Every structure is written in structure tokens, then in C-alpha cells.
Amino acid sequence: xxxxxxxxxxxxxxxxxxxxxxxxxxxxxxxxxxxxxxxxxxxxxxxxxxxxxxxxxxxxxxxxxxxxxxxxxxxxxxxxxxxxxxxxxxxxxxxxxxxxxxxxxxxxxxxxxxxxxxxxxxxxxxxxxxxxxxxxxxxxxxxxxxxxxxxxxxxxxxxxxxxxxxxxxxxxxxxxxxxxxxxxxxxxxxxxxxxxxxxxxxxxxxxxxxxxxxxxxxxxxxxxxxxxxxxxxxxxxxxxxxxxxxxxxxxxxxxxxxxxxxxxxxxxxxxxxxxxxxxxxxxxxxxxxxxxxxxxxxxxxxxxxxxxxxxxxxxxxxxxxxxxxxxxxxxxxxxxxxxxxxxxxxxxxxxxxxxxxxxxxxxxxxxxxxxxxxxxxxxxxxxxxxxxxxxxxxxxxxxxxxxxxxxxxxxxxxxxxxxxxxxxxxxxxxxxxxxxxxxxxxxxxxxxxxxxxxxxxxxxxxxxxxxxxxxxxxxxxxxxxxxxxxxxxxxxxxxxxxxxxxxxxxxxxxxxxxxxxxxxxxxxxxxxxxxxxxxxxxxxxxxxxxxxxxxxxxxxxxxxxxxxxxxxxxxxxxxxxxxxxxxxx
Length: 585
Hints:
Elements: E1 4-9, H1 10-14, E2 20-23, H2 42-53, E3 59-68, E4 73-78, H3 80-93, E5 102-105, H4 109-117, H5 135-151, H6 157-166, E6 168-174, H7 180-188, H8 195-208, H9 222-257, H10 260-266, H11 275-282, H12 292-297, H13 306-329, H14 331-341, H15 347-359, H16 364-374, H17 380-384, H18 396-407, H19 417-433, E7 453-455, E8 462-470, E9 473-480, E10 485-486, E11 497-498, E12 514-516, H20 522-525, H21 530-537, H22 550-556, H23 563-581
């Protein structure tokens, strides 16, 4: 069976002759009556929308994904919550309305028993599992209570029933039964946090499905009436096609944002990522976090009908989504953006970074400069508004000079690890950005982490003189780079470094003896001397993630690593830093 998609009314969906709806055992329990943060539940929101819509318009309820079997079973892959809520709503209207609907819960025996019992005479829906031991039953009862409260606002329940069955529609999607479990996993992996995003999607599809109001003069001409009918049919087809296209586009965005690589890159676990949050931020709803109610307010604009306003918002979302994909997919932009994210202060700062990259995505040099200044702790304002800074505000150049001062010290490791790590990261990223004829390649930022800063010459194999006081007497001892006292007469044959022979501006802990490694590769090096580390690094028979680090490779290309190489590497690093940040001696 190939996948099929069609629009169905609720009557066509629920009252399929001799069909049995199955809630498979891999589904989560019923949760639509849960109130999050004391806000309306999904059941209450649905009831509010239905009661508003039922007298004058159609209502589009989000799609249902199913598999149909040869023995008349309809396996609900995505749509359990909606289907169950509709069943409970019909039951609340009149028990007889659900007699021909076969809904089978395979999740828990008590859930199945409760749903089946609703069809029985003299069944007290509230007097079942009074201690609330079964999650589904507890929330079934909550849903019934919430539905009945909202139904009090319906003056003509018969008319509401007709509206519900014939004016409320869903997108009915059929997929192969073999794909059921994998599809469920893909669609529902983050279901517990998808509620607000689902509601926004459903609301936008509902609004874009609203009928166009056309003023028509009454005509007795059969030809005129035929033309009108054709026009109505054409517009209905156009609306269905538009709604279907919007649903497909939204699902593509959802699929993109739920890629592990995308979620990790943007640092978000939200189903729609940062798309809806940034959209709200950019239209000056800066003090409100994304939720359904906040988003629904923007779908209303004076002088523009609901359908047109929704089209406008959807286009703006489409453009923003494309911009997200653009700045993620272009390797050089991808790399500069992620480096900038590493320095963001909060979510608003991250939004400013994203907006800047979207605006300047055609100017790679500006993005390179932006990320470079972020890595020395310059703020968005200091980088982009340098001409507007007050006299008492630091400049980005001040931040670079301060960073240079810290990186030039004899002891960087243990004091300014984060700064050193970011600058070594930058040097490796810049090498990746030169690849593929200058188009670059996406840098693997999983390499970056707290334990990614490594000594080239092991700190445990460097020593220095130190004075300690013992029983009131000053004693001269020797300590290694870990500050442990050692016996220099019992050193092994491995060549050690004597810090006392180094000059005042460098040591085994200075920037000249540090490099970036994949954090899991550090353990393979341990405290091995340089020649052993080099052998491990270039052993192609061993998996070694750090072999992709092009600046790090240049260090291991050296023949030896003594105090002279540390000094030379430090001088080279400082000169490069001054050049990149425009610092003159």
C-alpha cells in the first residue's frame, strides 16, 4: 500500500463502516486534558475554538496519520489525542453518538475497559478508578469534565453535533503498516513538548481554510448559477491545495529542526527550534516567550481578514525558515555562526547574532570579523554599534588588547583556559574555511569542550625549583607541572623540560605549548612524550578524531618539541593574533 492523503470530515473519519480504531501499545497515554502552568488544556482550547466556529464556518483540525489493515483495523500512529477527544466530546453530547465508533486502547487494560464502558447503560463515568491509579482514566475523566463545562455555552447541541461531523475536517494520511513504528518514533520523539507548536499549526491551517466571503447578486439564470457553483468548487479546491501545501511545508520545517545535528548546532530541543521564538522576537514581542496564545495574537491585524493575515504570517515564517537553512548550510557561515554562539550571553543575545548573520549572509568577511570579535568577549553592541558607544564604554579593540595580555602570560593554562580554547578553535576553523577552493567545510564542533585543551609537551614531564617551608625552615624542592614534588635524580629516560631554563614569558602552561584536541582523544595521549604523541596522532590504523584538526596537525608536523619549539610556537601565535585583531606594537 502506498501512502495516501485526503481531507475528511469527522463523520467520514469516525464513522467508517465496520472499522476499528486501534491505539497501539507504543503510544503514550492520553494527556490532552493536562493543564500546563495552570493554562488551558488542549481539550479546553479545542472546545473554545469549536464553540466560536460552529455557527458560521468550517474548522480544520490537525491531521491524523494511520495505517489501514486488511482486517478493517485503523492503526492510529499520530492522532490518538485528537481522536480520543472527539470520541469523548461526542459521548458528552449524547451517549448514542459513539455506539458505532469502535475505539480500542491497547496501552492499558483499564483504559480499554473505561472506553468500552462508556457505551454501557448505567455506567457512571466519574465513579471509576477513584484513587487515580490509571493515568489514562484520570485524564479521560478530566477531559469529560472540561468538555461538559464548555458545552454549557452551546445553546443548540443538535446544530453543534451537525457542525462537528460535517464542518470540522482533518487531513487523513495513510502510510504502509511496515512504516508505522518508525513513523511514530520520528513524529512523536518529542511529543511531550510539541503541544504549543501543534496548536499553532492547527490554528494557521484553520484560518487559511476559512471561506472567502464574496458578495453575490441573486440570479434566476441557470447559467449564472452554474458559473457561481463552478467558482465555489474551484475556490474550495484552491483552499484545500493551499492548506495541504502549508501542512507539508510546516512538517518539513519540523523534520529539519528535529535533526540531531540541527538541534545540537542551535542549542535547542524545541520541536520547531528557534523559528517561532525568533519570529515573535523580531516583531517586537520581545518580553514574551513563545506559546500558542502569544502567537495567536499576531494572526489578527486591523484591516486584514484572518485568512490573508495568516497567509502573510506563513510567508514571513517561510522566509525566516529559509534564512535559518541558508546560514546553517553554507560551511563558512555555519562555522562563524557556531563560534559566535559559543560566546552568546543569553537567548536575546543569540537572537541578535542570528539576525546579524541572516542580514549579512552575503558578506563572509563581515561574518568572519563578527565571530572573531565575539571570541575576545566583545558584545553585539560593541561590534555593530561602535560609532554609538558612550565614552565610558569599552571598545572591541580594548577587549582584544586585554585578551592579548592574558594570552601572552607565562601561565595561561589553569587561568584563562576558555580564552585559549576559543582562539585555538578559531585557528582550526579558519583552516577548514580555506578548503574546497575557499568554500570551506563544516567544522565538527563536537570537538569543542571543557577537556579539549591539551599540553603538547606533557605538564607532568616539566619541572621547576620551588621553595617550601617545613618546620620553620625554607627548603628547596623540585615540582612538576602538576605541582607535585619530584626527585630529579630519579627521573626516567624521557626528556624533561626545565621551566627554570625558559624565559620569563613562557612555560609548559603558556599558549605556545597548548593545542586543541577532541576531548575524548586526550586520554589516548596521557602524559606521553611528544614523539609518542606524534606517532599516535598520525597512526591511520587507529581512529583519532583530532586528525581532522588542521591547525593541530601543523604542530605535530614538527620533528621535535623542546623549549625552543614552545617559544617559536608562542611567538607565531602572538604575531597571528596581533595581525588578525589589528594590534600594533
